[in-house]
Amino acid sequence: MRTLAFDGRMGASGDMLLGALVAAGADPAVLDRVEDALPVRYETRAVTKNGIAATAVDVRHTGEDGRALSGESEDDDGHAHDHEGHDHDAHGHGHEDGGNEHEGSEHDHDGHDHVHAEGAGPNRTYTEVVELVESMGLPAGVERDALDVFELLGEAEASVHGTEVDETHFHEVGADDAIADVVGVTLLLDDLGVERVVTTPLAAGGGEVSMSHGTYPVPAPAVVELAERADWSLTGGPIERELLTPTGAALLAHYADGVDALPGLDVSASGYGAGGYDLAEYPNVLRAIVGESRGGLSRDAITVLETNLDDATPEVLGGLQESLADAGARDVSILPATMKKSRPGHLVKVVVKPEDAERVARRLAEETGTLGVREHGAGHRWIADREVRSVEIAVDDETYEVAVKIGTDDEGTVFDVSAEYDDAAAVAEETGLPVREVARRAEAAARE
């Protein structure tokens, strides 16, 4: 399976995604469709970030809508994105290249007197953005993906502001440059022809961001809302700047599956998309790797905690699954064991991520009263990619929904389909069918 993997350790923004995709082999000529529909031009340039050769893509405004800007930004750190209409200058992925030397590519349009499109053009409602995208004459799949991304953005902003999606003003996200970012990324991904997109945990950065409603910690509220809807993980750091924008988060929430580490790939292309800031310790780039996946299971770094218990009550043992999962456990097993003096007891084994081990060990001690928790350096486990899908089954002319868990290898080959027991049991109780019959029908529907 042709796979695109992003390395999210320095976050992501729309312009970084544009640059990474061009650097990984996508043809920037496909962006002409956006330039024909909006008063913007893309400029693709070679830059260097802490010794890493990267591609910067600037979206510049041509002033063709009668709202020409007065000149380029003088922000030394690069343009700051505006989340939910709240201007701030903490963001690290502006459209400036931070003073790096660069050369214009063949996609530069030197004949235009254009300036940065940051916030240029009208700020649109969600409905107006949808109408604009539908009027651009995009390929059907590209249009559908772009609209899905804007729907995610609309839902996130509506949730933050307590409004309805159709009434939500996108502010900066509805401006020309943000639309150029979203539609541009969808066009480049379509051109790249990958079958799957994955990303490692995305760094949000740190510190605070000043908004018109006050000062908020990074990540911004819309980014948090989008992370809730995404398959990937969000992590803080590694610097005290904002690294993940709502546009970048929405694009990856739509396209990317989350992975803990880069999957096994026979690499055919790679590249780096540049962010705006020049940082002292880290190259401000988003790495993209394209290759054929090897059809195996995913490697997941873990460690194993265990303890022996000879005096735990059934109530305590029964609650360990939930309480340890809340602390970060990935799996909990409780096995019967024979203790000293042939007394019956239990062996508790807990699978955790290495970074969660100390916190989970403390919770295990607090819940059980154990005086010691052992850690085994298991290293890793091999896991299937998992997706929970809702399917419909018909019983006596009534339709019921059942959640089904689907296990696949990294090429998407399905080798396990399992209905969620609680859903199947609820339908069984309502219909009078046996639970296993409900499960069988749901699993058959998922395989179709």
Structure overview:
By secondary structure, this protein is an alpha+beta fold. It folds into three domains: 2-293, no CATH class; 298-383, 2-Layer Sandwich (Alpha-Beta Plaits); 385-447, Ubiquitin-like (UB roll). The chain is built from eleven helices and 20 strands. It has a five-stranded mixed β-sheet. Strands 4-2-3-5 form a four-stranded antiparallel β-sheet. Helix 10 packs across helix 11 (435-447). The radius of gyration is 25 Å and the shape is globular. Mean pLDDT is 84; it is low at 64-117.
Describe what is shown at a glance.
With 448 residues, the chain is an alpha+beta fold.
- Structural category: alpha+beta
Low-confidence stretches: 64-117
Shape: globular
Which sequence of strands runs across the widest sheet?
Answer: 11-6-1-13-12
Strand content: 25-35%
Number of domains: 3
Radius of gyration computed on alpha carbons: 25 Å
Helix content class: 25-40%
| Number of strand elements | 20
Continuous helix count? 11
**How would a textbook summarize the main sheet?**
5 strands, mixed
Report, as a whole number of angstroms, the end-to-end distance: 21 Å
- Report the average pLDDT across residues: 84
How do the strands and helices of this protein lay out in sequence?
Layout: E1 2-7, H1 14-23, H2 32-37, E2 40-49, E3 52-61, E4 103-104, E5 115-116, H3 126-134, H4 140-161, H5 176-192, E6 196-199, E7 202-203, E8 208-211, E9 214-217, H6 221-229, E10 234-235, H7 246-255, E11 256-258, E12 265-274, E13 285-293, E14 298-309, H8 314-327, E15 331-338, E16 344-352, H9 357-368, E17 374-383, E18 385-395, E19 398-408, E20 414-419, H10 421-431, H11 435-447
Parallel strand pairs: 1-6, 6-11, 7-10
Antiparallel strand pairs: 1-13, 2-3, 2-4, 3-5, 8-9, 12-13, 14-16, 14-17, 15-16, 18-19, 19-20
Helix pairs in contact: 1-5, 3-4, 4-5, 4-6, 4-7, 6-7, 8-9, 10-11
